[in-house]
Amino acid sequence: MSVLSADDRSEVNQVLTELDDAVTVHVFTEDECEYCEQTLDLYDDVAGESEHVSVEIHDMDDPLAEDLGARKYDGAPVTVITRGDVTGVRYFGIPSGQEFSSFLQDLIVVSRGAGETPLPEEVREQVREIDQPVELKVFVTPTCPHCPRAVRVAHDMAVENDLIEADAIESQEFRELSQEYGVRGVPQINVNETGQFTGGLPPQRFLEEVRSALEQ
């Protein structure tokens, strides 16, 4: 069933003309998942607006779920946008509301690959210099106006450096995880298990917070 209106689909079509290469949207679902069906309907609408977007649906028991990090937390749906070696761009929960724009921009960024993200060139260079695994958890809500910026910067970093994994986590759907990490305001960004900061920071400040956490 279509989720987007005709006007929305027209806008999506226009945005996706910026895709440079084909991307695959892997969606992992499970039984008794509140938002899985709505997520699949949303992606059907998106894929219908570009021949460069393919959607592959998997059960959470699929071995690929482990390979792509979909089992890291308890719950579904989980979305991983991939192209070639880019596998660290993930959504835990439906990317609705404010996060839908982030999802569309991620399709473009993943299609273009490293060196073509919207990050300033000096930030790109510093991101590429990171030589240790980094796991970014970006807790968001659909109505948060500052969350998309945090998600996009985190995902851009994951595209630029394959040692970085960036998870956009819908905090209301993943309540137990949000409680575990003490989420009281969004966007909250957790870096590995050593650092935490909040806000839709500009790329340079975002990177500084990440590097500070890695030094702890």
UniProtKB/TrEMBL annotation:
* Protein known as: Glutaredoxin
- Organism domain of life: Archaea
CDD domains tied to this protein = TRX_GRX_like
| Alphabetical UniProt keywords | Electron transport, Transport
**Boundaries of each Thioredoxin-like fold domain copy?**
135-210
Annotated source species: Halapricum salinum
The family assignment reads: Belongs to the glutaredoxin family.
| Annotated Pfam families | Thioredoxin_3
Lineage, opening ranks:
Archaea, Methanobacteriati, Methanobacteriota, Stenosarchaea group, Halobacteria
